[in-house]
Design brief:
InterPro entries: D-2-hydroxyacid_DH (IPR050857), D-isomer_2_OHA_DH_cat_dom (IPR006139), D-isomer_DH_CS (IPR029753), D-isomer_DH_NAD-bd (IPR006140), NAD(P)-bd_dom_sf (IPR036291). This is D-isomer specific 2-hydroxyacid dehydrogenase. The protein has two domains: 127 residues, NAD(P)-binding Rossmann-like Domain (Rossmann fold, 3-Layer(aba) Sandwich); 176 residues, Rossmann fold. Helix content is 32%, strand content 14%. The chain has eleven helices and twelve strands. It has a seven-stranded parallel sheet, with helices on both faces. Strands 2-1-3-4-5 form a five-stranded parallel sheet. Helix 6 links the parallel strand 6 and strand 7. The longest helix has 19 residues. The chain is elongated and about 65 Å long. It starts with 7 loop residues before the first strand and ends in a 13-residue tail after the last helix.
Length: 326
């Protein structure tokens, strides 16, 4: 309950598809909380603060709405932050902790992102959007597709998702190579792929797929030099985080035709601005950060969110993010 025994006021943000209520059983909050679901997205800090001022609990979907220290400081009623997935770098957990505000996370399923990676890669290789548009327009064949069998897939990162992508590449008969800053040949061999140095990966891969966690060390890890080292027919696929790739350098390479194209689900700024060049460049296949947007994943997200709120109302918060030193 909120102060004075009134029901807690809960804001569920950025429910783009309007499915938050249907993806979980919220009845455990009946009589204990008033839930307001917002389907729109606010970029403006003043408008966001004005919206959130009355709420005791703010529930965010991944990094769609960041909660940095200046925003948290202006929300005097805020008592709990619920965030989907296991981590959220866009929330200042230390600033919340200083106010005694727990930040509670949820479970996560990674198969959706891996599956979308292959959806994008296959669609790019076989020009699926262009051919589907041709059929709808009354036309027929207009392109010659690229092959996967016998060609090289380069993985930047070989964690859980990268390994899933690599195993599928092997099933397609691809040569799969991988690089990351700490990747060992032994780890690559466990997945059945070959570890190479960074320059070799970008120079030899026909498809480069990025699978790293965004951090200060990985930000911009695919830059102008890496893009310049790619084959002119190669495609870059990024379903991880936009800032892993130098967006300006990528746009320059795409405009100049120095690489075959890019298949992207993530961007530096999301939602992608309406006039952004990545929306219109002919050698870009773009989706609106839907890698994690699946029925199964949303069921986990919202189920755990409800559980987190109930636990907090009971005075024993669960799945609380720890404040990391430094």
């Amino acid at each position: 309950m909120a102060a004075g025994g009134a029901p807690a006021r809960i804001a569920v943000l950025d429910d783009y598809q309007g499915v938050a209520r249907a993806c979980a059983d919220w009845s455990a909050l009946d009589g204990r909380a008033d839930v307001t679901v917002f389907r729109d997205h606010l970029d403006d800090a003043e408008a966001l603060v004005a919206r959130l001022l009355p709420f005791d609990v703010v529930c965010v979907m991944r990094e769609r709405t960041p909660l940095p220290a200046p925003i948290i400081a202006r929300l005097p009623n805020l008592k709990l932050i619920c965030s989907t997935a296991a981590r959220n770098a866009s929330i200042d957990v230390a600033a919340a902790a200083a106010r005694g505000i727990p930040v509670c996370n949820t479970g996560y399923t990674s198969h959706g992102a891996a599956e979308l990676t292959w959806a994008l890669l296959l669609a790019a290789a076989r020009h699926v959007p262009a051919e589907a548009a041709s059929v709808r327009a009354g036309g027929w064949q207009t392109t010659v597709g690229g092959d996967l069998y016998g060609h090289t897939l380069g993985l930047v990162g070989l964690g859980r998702i990268g390994a899933m992508i690599g195993r599928v590449g092997l099933a397609f008969g691809m040569e799969v190579i991988a690089w990351s800053q700490n990747l060992s040949p032994a780890r690559a061999a466990e997945v059945g792929v070959r570890a190479v140095d960074k320059a070799t990966l970008f120079a030899t891969a026909d498809y480069v797929s990025v699978h790293l966690v965004l951090s200060d060390r990985s930000r911009g890890i695919v830059g102008a030099d890496e893009l310049a080292g790619m084959k002119p027919t190669a495609w870059l696929v990024n379903t991880s985080r936009g800032p892993l790739v130098d967006e300006g350098a990528l746009i320059d390479a795409l405009r100049a035709g120095r690489i075959g194209g890019a298949a992207l689900d993530v961007y530096d700024v999301e939602p992608l601005p309406p006039a952004h060049p990545l929306r219109t460049l002919p050698n870009v296949l773009a989706t609106p950060h839907v890698g994690f947007v699946t029925r199964d994943t949303y069921a986990v997200f919202y189920r755990d969110t409800v559980e987190n709120i109930v636990a907090w109302l009971d005075g024993a918060p669960i799945r609380v993010t720890e404040v990391r030193p430094g």
